[in-house]
Amino acid sequence: MISLPELYALLYARYGDLGWWPAADAYEMCVGAILTQNTSWNSVEKAIANFGGRLSPDHVRSLSDEELTDIIRPSGFFNQKAQRIRTLTAWLDSLGCLPADCTLPTAELRKQLLALKGVGRETADSILVYAFGRLSFVVDAYTRRLLSRLGYDLPDDYDDIRRMIEASVEPDIYIYNNFHAVIVEQCKQHCLKKPRCEGCPLDEHCPRNGL
Fold first, then answer.
1. What pTM was computed for the model?
2. Domain regions of the chain by residue span
3. What secondary structure does DSSP assign to 137-197, as a single string?
4. 26-130, which class in CATH?
């Protein structure tokens, strides 16, 4: 079975540096992590574009609930997400510093994020990796699908999968960032729900080739 470092090397050779997460700054990354829940990134981009380049904590605080929900409407579940954005913004304010300057241990940051209503483990890890630059691998449906098809016997629990990956991957924030990005790209191009195996960079390593 292909190892995780070998998997990353093959995917990197095909897709390269994907430059994730596509956002202007750490706050936009945090808001994007909320907006992307249960929707596509295209819908998130439309919602972010509706801010007209003014997506900031101060601007969000200045908006009425109706204004905020109208702006993020393209992302769906806009009433829930508006409240989650406000909750997350208040939490970021409580830190008293920018994400890049935060000195709290990663485990404590993750604990605080998970205590926020509407922030699950995947969302928390996305914020930690892409906004705070912390080592907390994002496990999403794409990750589960790809590793399962490659023969990995994945645990049921999210954090057990995350720890399994982190034990095998070099602890480097660029690799955490880009590995997740190339997994997503692989699953969009080849490892779809109905696989598209022709031209797949993993064809020699996939026991379920042609599934």
1. 0.91
2. 4-19+138-189, 26-130
3. ----HHHHHHHHHTT----SSHHHHHHHHHHHS-S-HHHHHHHHHHHHHHHHHTSSSS---
4. mainly alpha
